[in-house]
Design goal:
CATH architecture of chain B: Up-down Bundle
Largest interface: A-B, 47 and 55 residues
Oligomer: heterodimer
CATH class of chain B: Mainly Alpha
Distance between the termini of chain A: 19 Å
CATH topology of chain B: Sodium/glucose cotransporter
Strand content of chain A: 5-15%
Number of domains of chain A: 1
Number of helices of chain B: 22
Helix content of chain A: 55-70%
Strand order of the largest sheet of chain A: 1-2
Shape of chain A: elongated
Largest sheet of chain B: none
Shape of chain B: globular
Strand content of chain B: under 5%
Largest sheet of chain A: 2 strands, antiparallel
Number of strands of chain B: 0
Structural class of chain B: mainly alpha
Number of domains of chain B: 1
Order of helices and strands of chain B: HHHHHHHHHHHHHHHHHHHHHH
Distance between the termini of chain B: 45 Å
C-alpha cells in the first residue's frame, strides 16, 4: 500500500468506527427506554436491565469484532509499503 | 497519623505498591542506552495489544468509577448502570478513530506527544503552548481528585490516617512514573487493571454472600425501592443526564490527550485491532460489574444514605462490612489501582507537555543542544515536581472531589475535541480555527462552570463543545487556509499519486523528522 491508499483506508476505518457508534446509540435507546415498558422479568430483573446493560456490552463486543475483521486492515505504520491483509 | 489501623489490610497493599516500584526500576534498566525521548515519553512504539488495551482502560477508569459511581448506583438503581454502560464505546472509539492516523503521523515526524501533532498540523508554537498549559492545568485537577479519593478510601477501609494513605500511594506513583516513564506506566497500568477486575469479582462474591444471596437482595429492592428498577429512577435520572453523559464520558472522551497519546505507543496494527476488542471487553466488565455490585450492596448496607456519610462511602463501608478482615486489603487494591493508574497516566503526559513540548522545543528552536543525560534528569525532576505539587494540594483536600474530576474531564474535551477531530480529518481546519476553538471553548466552559450557568439544565460540556465548534468553523472560514506542504503530510489521501511517480522507498516527510534527542 502506498500512503495514498493507506490514508484512504484509515479514513474508511474511522468512518466505520463512527457508524458503529451510531448503531450502538440506536441499540442502547431501543434496548433500554424502548423495552422499559414491557412487564417481563428475567432472573429477578426487568428485561430492559439485561438488554440495556449486558446486552449492549455484548453487542459492542460483537460490533468491534466485526468492524476489525471486515473494515480494518493490517498495514505497516511506516511510510509506503505494499502489503494489505484483513484480520482473521 | 494513627497507628491503630488494620495491619492485615495494609500488608497486601504494601506488597502491591512495592511491586509497582520494582517495575519502575526494572523498566529503567531495560531502557538504558535507548533513545530517551521516544522511550521515556512513549515507550518506543513497543506496546502489544493486551498492554495497550489495559493501559488505555486503566488510565480512563478513575477512582470515581470504583467509589463515587457505584455509590451513586446504590442510591439511584439500574438507571445508573444503564448510563454507565455508554462507556463501552470509550476504548474502541479513540483507538478506531485516532489510533492509526496518529500512529502513522507520529512516525512521519517523530512525534511523541499529542501536542507535537497539534504543533505540526497547525504550525503554531502558540497553540502548542496553550495546549500544553491546558493539559497541565486540567490534569492537576484530575490528579488531585484521584489522590484525595484514593486516600479517603484507604483511611476508611484500613483505619490508618488519610495523610498516611496519601503519603503511601502518592510517593509510590510519583516514584515509579518518574523512574520508569511511559513503559513503566503501561506495565503497571496492566497490573492495576487486572487487580481492578479481581477486586470487582471478589467484592461481588462477598456482597452476594453477606446479603443472603442474589434472590434475597433483589426481593428487598423490589419491595423497598421499586423506582430503582426504572430507567428514569422515579425522576432521579432525567433524560438530560443521559444525554450529557453520552457526550462527557462517551463520545468526547476520544479527544482526551491521555487516551490519544496511546495511539502513538503501540507497535503494529494487529495490536491496535486486538486492543479495541480487549478494551471493550474489559471496560464493559468493569463498569457493569462495579455498578451492579454497588446496587447489590443494598443487601449489606440497609440504612439510609446519610447514615453512611454519603455516596463516596458506600463502597468502602461495603468492603469493610462484607469481606472477611483478611481479604479487605486485597479488595481495596482494585479501587486504589484505579486511582494510581490514572495518576501515573496523567503524570507522564503532563511531564512530557512541560519537558518535551515546551522546554525541548524551545531549546531546539534556539539552537541549544540538550544532552540525553540532561533530558533524563529534567524529565524525572519534572514528573516528580508535578506529582509533589498535586500531592501538597491533596494534603488539604478540597470538597466535591467528583465535581473537580468531571470539571477537568469536560475542560480537556472542550479544548481538544474539535482541534483533534477536525484537525486530523478536515483539510479546511486551520490555525486560526484551532486557536479560537481551544481558547474560546475552554474559556466559555470555565466561565459557565464558574457561574453555574446551564442551558436547559444540561452539563456545561454541551456549551463548551458547541462554542468550541462555532469558533473553529468561524476561524476556518475567516482565516488563512493551512499551507499546502502541511496538508500534503497530513492528508496524503487527497493527493492521488501518478503511477510513474510511485516509489517503494520511504518518502521523506516535508515537515522534517528525526529531530528527537
Amino acid at each position: 500500500m502506498n500512503n495514498y491508499e493507506k490514508y484512504r483506508q484509515v479514513r474508511k476505518e474511522a468512518a466505520g468506527t463512527a457508524l458503529l457508534l451510531l448503531i450502538l446509540i440506536g441499540a442502547w435507546v431501543a434496548a433500554g427506554f424502548g423495552l422499559a415498558g414491557i412487564p417481563v422479568e428475567f432472573f429477578h430483573l426487568p428485561l430492559w436491565v439485561w438488554t440495556a446493560t449486558i446486552g449492549i456490552w455484548l453487542f459492542a463486543i460483537i460490533g468491534v469484532k466485526i468492524l476489525t475483521a471486515t473494515v480494518f486492515v493490517d498495514m505497516s505504520l511506516d511510510d509506503s509499503e505494499e502489503e494489505v491483509r484483513h484480520d482473521k | 497519623m494513627t497507628s491503630e489501623g488494620n495491619l492485615s489490610a495494609l500488608l497486601p497493599l504494601l506488597v502491591f505498591m512495592g511491586f509497582m516500584v520494582a517495575i519502575g526500576f526494572w523498566v529503567r534498566r531495560q531502557n538504558a542506552g535507548k533513545n530517551f525521548v521516544q522511550t521515556y515519553f512513549i515507550g518506543n512504539h513497543d506496546l502489544g495489544g493486551f498492554v495497550l488495551a489495559m493501559t488505555t482502560v486503566a488510565t480512563y477508569s478513575s477512582v470515581s468509577s470504583f467509589v463515587g459511581g457505584p455509590g451513586m448506583a446504590w442510591q439511584i438503581g439500574f438507571g445508573w448502570v444503564y448510563m454507565a454502560v455508554v462507556q463501552v464505546t470509550a476504548i474502541f472509539l479513540v483507538l478506531g478513530i485516532f489510533g492509526k492516523r496518529v500512529a502513522m503521523l507520529s512516525r512521519r515526524f517523530d512525534a511523541v506527544t499529542v501536542v507535537d501533532i497539534i504543533r505540526e498540523r497547525f504550525q503554531s508554537d502558540g497553540l502548542a503552548t496553550l495546549a500544553a498549559f491546558i493539559i497541565v492545568l486540567f490534569f492537576c485537577g484530575t490528579m488531585t481528585a484521584q489522590f484525595v479519593g484514593g486516600a479517603k478510601l484507604f483511611a476508611t477501609v484500613t483505619g490508618y490516617s488519610y495523610e498516611m494513605g496519601l503519603l503511601l500511594f502518592g510517593l509510590v506513583v510519583v516514584l515509579y512514573t518518574s523512574i520508569g516513564g511511559f513503559r513503566a506506566v503501561a506495565i503497571t497500568d496492566t497490573c492495576c487493571a487486572i487487580m481492578m477486575m479481581i477486586g470487582i469479582a471478589l467484592l461481588l462474591y462477598y456482597v452476594l454472600e453477606a446479603g443472603g444471596g442474589y434472590a434475597a437482595i433483589m426481593a428487598n429492592i423490589h419491595a423497598n425501592h421499586p423506582e430503582m428498577l426504572e430507567p428514569l429512577s422515579g425522576g432521579h435520572m432525567p433524560v438530560g443526564l443521559y444525554l450529557t453523559q453520552w457526550i462527557l464520558v462517551g463520545i468526547c472522551t476520544i479527544a482526551l490527550p491521555q487516551s490519544v497519546v496511546r495511539g502513538i505507543s503501540y507497535k503494529d496494527t494487529k495490536s491496535l485491532h486486538k486492543a479495541m476488542l480487549i478494551g471493550t471487553v474489559v471496560v464493559g466488565f468493569m463498569n457493569i460489574g462495579i455498578n451492579f455490585t454497588g446496587i447489590l450492596a443494598h443487601g449489606v448496607l440497609t440504612g439510609p444514605l446519610a447514615s453512611y456519610g454519603g455516596v463516596d462511602y458506600i463502597i468502602p463501608k461495603t468492603i469493610v462490612t462484607a469481606l472477611p478482615p483478611a481479604l479487605v486489603g486485597l479488595a481495596i487494591i482494585g479501587p486504589l489501582a484505579a486511582s494510581i493508574s490514572t495518576i501515573s497516566g496523567l503524570l507522564i503526559v503532563a511531564s512530557s507537555a512541560i519537558v518535551k513540548d515546551v522546554y525541548l522545543h524551545h531549546a531546539e528552536k534556539h539552537g541549544r543542544t540538550v544532552t540525553g543525560r540532561q533530558l533524563r534528569r529534567l524529565s524525572t525532576v519534572a514528573t516528580a515536581v508535578i506529582g509533589v505539587i498535586v500531592f501538597c494540594i491533596a494534603m488539604t483536600p478540597p470538597s466535591l472531589i467528583w465535581l473537580i474530576n468531571m470539571f477537568a474531564f469536560g475542560g480537556l474535551e472542550t479544548a481538544f475535541f474539535w482541534t483533534l477531530l477536525l484537525g486530523l480529518f478536515w483539510r479546511r481546519a486551520n490555525k486560526l480555527g484551532a486557536i479560537l476553538s481551544m481558547g474560546g471553548g475552554t474559556i466559555a466552559y470555565c466561565l459557565t462552570q464558574g457561574l453555574g450557568f446551564k442551558f436547559m439544565g444540561l452539563h456545561q460540556i454541551t456549551i463548551g463543545i458547541t462554542v468550541s465548534l462555532a469558533f473553529f468553523l468561524l476561524g476556518a472560514y475567516l482565516g488563512k487556509p493551512q499551507e499546502e506542504r502541511v496538508l500534503r503530510v497530513f492528508f496524503p489521501e487527497s493527493h492521488k499519486p501518478n503511477p510513474e511517480d510511485l516509489v517503494t522507498a520511504k518518502e521523506p516527510c516535508p515537515l522534517g523528522g528525526d529531530k528527537n534527542t
